[in-house]
């Protein structure tokens, strides 16, 4: 997991949003929640698998920001992914629910809530 130092951000909230995003990605590792977006070899920017993983990370970030009481300051940064998310959603209408379930599991993992209630994937 890589995150620039807090001094490189305009406001602390941007740092924590970026940190939460990278932490959400880190939960996809094989030794944690083993998500396809992290586990699949050769995934490139714009790929469907990449887009799904970014959606999971962004939703996880929003959840962690909510728990922390931090304003999600990375909305403009997220805009670059919207087009690929929309393409993926058009192909799979269950994507939002699946991503939300995976994001909740990621947030729970980060928060140490292993028995927390989450949306089940179909």
Number of helical segments?
5
The total strand number stands at 0
Order of helices and strands: HHHHH
Let me know the average pLDDT: 84
Distance between the termini: 29 Å
Helix content class: 55-70%
The major β-sheet equals: none
Shape: globular
List the helices and strands and how they pair.
Blueprint: H1 12-26, H2 36-39, H3 48-68, H4 75-91, H5 95-111
Helix pairs in contact: 1-3, 3-4, 3-5
Can you give a write-up of this model?
There is one protein chain. By secondary structure, this protein is mainly alpha-helical. The protein contains 5 helices and no strands. Helix 1 packs across helix 3, helix 3 crosses helix 4 and helix 3 packs across helix 5. The longest helix is centred in the middle third of the chain and has 21 residues.
Structure keywords:
disordered C terminus; mainly alpha; 122 residues
Summarize the structure.
This protein is mostly helical and about 120 residues long. Helix content is about 60%, strand content about 0%.
């Amino acid at each position: 997991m890589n995150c620039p130092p807090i001094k490189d951000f305009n406001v602390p909230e941007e740092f924590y949003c970026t940190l939460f995003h990278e932490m959400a990605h880190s939960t996809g590792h094989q030794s944690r929640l083993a998500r396809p977006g992290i586990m699949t070899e050769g995934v490139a920017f714009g790929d469907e698998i990449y887009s799904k993983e970014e959606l999971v990370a962004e939703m996880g970030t929003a959840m962690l920001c909510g728990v922390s009481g931090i304003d999600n300051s990375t909305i403009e940064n997220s805009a670059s992914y919207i087009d690929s998310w929309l393409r993926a959603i058009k192909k799979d209408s269950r994507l939002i629910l699946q991503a939300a379930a995976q994001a909740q599991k990621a947030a729970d993992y980060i928060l140490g809530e292993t028995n927390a209630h989450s949306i089940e994937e179909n």
